[in-house]
Amino acid sequence: MSAAGLPAHVGIIMDGNGRWAGERGLPRNAGHEAGERALFDTVEGALELGLGYLTVYAFSTENWRRPPGEVRFLMNFNRDLLLRRADDLDERRVRVRFIGRRGRPVPRRLVRMMESTERRTAHHRRLTLQVAFNYGGRSELVDAARKVAQDVAEGRLRPERVTEASLRSRLYEPDAPDVDLLVRTSGERRLSNFLLWEAAYAELVFADVRWPDFDRTHLLAAVQEYRRRSRRFGTV
Ligand code: IPE
Ligand code: IPE
Ligand code: MG
After folding, report:
1. CB-based pocket (< 6 A), ligand 1
2. Is residue 94 within a helix (H) or strand (E), and if so which, with residue range?
3. In CA terms, which of 71, 112, 204, 212 is 20 to 30 Å from 77?
4. Whole-number pLDDT of residue 197
5. Which stretches of the chain drop beneath a pLDDT of 70?
6. Phi-psi category of residue 164: left, alpha or beta, with phi > 0 → left and psi -120 to 50 → alpha
7. What would the DSSP string read from start to end of 56-77?
């Protein structure tokens, strides 16, 4: 926990875009479009609060199972979103990073856009916005295990020296603190493979609004709820 009882790291599972659209007689993709406003209002809220780390779940390793038209839409939409918003994020001194696997089938032009946004904003320290894209908590752990295995095979690490810290330091962004507060919108109460290691001791808050209807006031309410929780980390 950081100053003023703020969570050092907040994770958000941005869920409910498709249902939001369906409830309005719109195609699912209109829900994804409507989610952009929610995301940037939430980022404003995070800046106002003075949060250090915010990680949002944008596309999971399981989301490739969706209909091809929706997957294609999400790839193009996320690239366009970066084109539209990179200046703004840079001006607001937000450091943007992406966590997840960047190989195929993630389109090359989206990866290039991710990398240029990361490079452009790498020096900022006000807020770190991590976008989980083609992210899965299990693949993150598999990738970390591969690095451990590689280091053991090449003699840099002894098997008996493999600890929680050695695995932790091989996650996608090891400098990010553990997640203190995890928010999921839209009524579902599951992790869906998000930040399995980092959220091991997170406080869970469920906001019963669809993601496109979420805004900074919901973020503030979640932080207030978090502050009322009693965290014990296994002690008394
Ligand atoms: C979250 O909204 C966005 C992504 C997973 C990309 P959904 O698309 O999951 O919307 P629902 O849950 O089907 O309503
Ligand atoms: C989790 O939402 C993934 C993202 C928000 C990107 P899903 O809608 O994909 O999760 P499930 O299918 O309800 O578990
Ligand atoms: Mg969903």
Report:
1. 14-19, 59, 63, 74, 186, 211
2. strand 94-99
3. 204
4. 98
5. 1-4
6. alpha
7. EEEEETTGGGS-HHHHHHHHHH
